[in-house]
Specification:
It comes from Serratia inhibens. This is SPOC domain-containing protein. With 127 residues, the protein is an all-alpha fold. Among the domains are: 35 residues, no CATH class; 36 residues. The chain has 5 helices and no strands.
């Protein structure tokens, strides 16, 4: 590259970035880069392994949930049954269905407990 092309590149870049700089739109990018830099500084192997474990758990739950949904949808497409209470009752009598329902209900119970414990106290009327 010639010196003219090299010197023209920063000027062209600055010209394009000028509206973003003037409007303060790049402040968020700078803040994000600063946050990432701080996270890199404080991250140790234990934290990285813990975050990797959390990420792997979330991916596993998403994968299993998506696979189960696709399988159930395929089964319903291949063997369409009429939706009635008898079919629902037959499904509820299966131990795997009950185990899945227990998991969902326990999860909702934990969410409810945490929501109640973290709720703000009720507002008192001004006297």
């Amino acid at each position: 590259m010639s010196d003219n092309a090299t010197s023209a590149l920063p000027h062209a870049l600055l010209d394009k970035l000028q509206p973003l700089l003037a409007g303060g739109r790049l402040d968020n990018v700078v803040d994000l880069l600063s946050l990432l830099s701080d996270l890199v500084d404080i991250a140790d192997n234990a934290l990285v392994e813990k975050l990797a474990g959390v990420f792997e758990g979330l991916v596993t739950v998403g994968w299993e949930g998506g696979t189960a949904l696709k399988l159930a949808h395929s089964e319903l497409q291949l063997n369409p049954q009429s939706a009635n209470f008898r079919a629902l009752y037959a499904l509820l009598r299966q131990p795997d269905t009950l185990l899945g329902l227990m998991l969902v209900l326990r999860t909702l119970q934990i969410i409810g407990e945490r929501t109640r414990n973290s709720a703000l106290p009720p507002d008192t009327p001004d006297e």
